[in-house]
Amino acid sequence: MSNLSDKMNKRVAALTPAAILTFNQKISAIPDIVKLTLGEPDFNTPEHVKQAAVKAIEANQSHYTNSRGTEGLRKAAAGFLNKKYGLNYNPDTQLIMTAGATGAIYAALTAMINPGDTVIVPTPIFPLYVPILMLAGAKPVFVDTSEDGFILSPEKLSAAIEANQNTVKAVILNFPNNPTGVTYHQDDLQKLADVISKHDIICLSDEIYSELTYDGTHVSMGTILPEQTLVMNGVSKSHAMTGWRVGMICGPEDIINEVAKVSEFTITSLATNTQAAAEEAFKNGMDDALPMKKAYMARRDLLVAGLEKAGFSCPNPNGAFYVFAKIPEGLNQNSEAFCYELAEQAKVALIPGSYFLPGGEGYVRISYAASTEDLQEAISRIQAYVDKKAVK
Asked: What is the pLDDT of residues 277-289, one digit of tens each?
């Protein structure tokens, strides 16, 4: 009998399961473990948003919608972006709703990539972008930002573009950043825009954590370089709606038209009731993130203080809900080995920094989308682990 798996797409065969999920699954079997692993709000979806979905179901809104999203949702999303960040997108031609930000990333990269293209990826970064661009036939060009405060410098961006000038199609930005919590400010973005504007490339700006910006106000790349930027966002983090799977992507009409084709052929349309919920979130939940943000900031301060006392050093996390902590000297600098040992001996689960590509080795990502009690217990266990290692 022939082995049909040998005839499958070789790009798919070359991929491996997501390391973060695999690690999380392995350590979950450890009894009494405190998990600070996954990036998911521990808050409930706001009640008024849930009720909008219930009403849609009761009204039998269970049919296909426009593949770009319902008119009401697109208008509400465009209004939210305009009021919050000064972005101006026509909801009929410049904005489409996607299956979460992941759907936006997939549709955008699939629409823009030709085999042999290169895409610039500043690292450390959430690794999801890489398998998607590889499936499209592109090659990632990693730019390590760990020595630059985890911010892509215009000099390094320019060098990466010049080194790949015949193939570079896009540069990816993610801010506030997963895993570092670092964000870009107006001046940072303007310097990058000055470089990008000199070339025929697209900036894919993933701003899903925009409402969880702690120091100052989030600035979108779409306000600085709108003609070359695709902005991605959604309700997952801002309204604690990760499982509802509603994202969006906005940009120039001619590019969005191509992205819309891929999204339509991939998902047809989003679930009707989730669109009703997201419309309610954008329209009447403009500030739903504020109480969550206040809690996250308190947790961040608690966690950073505890980690620094234990000997870890952390870049200032001024957004999202992660701390990217440098493993203290004298402990295992192989982040994966360190995290497995910490899980087994201290019963605390963190994510290895190496999973976030170049610049991540020697670090761990810690999610503070967890209760204060869990964070306090984790800090206590980490301190005890460090103290025990210091005695040996």
From this structure: 999 999 999 999 9
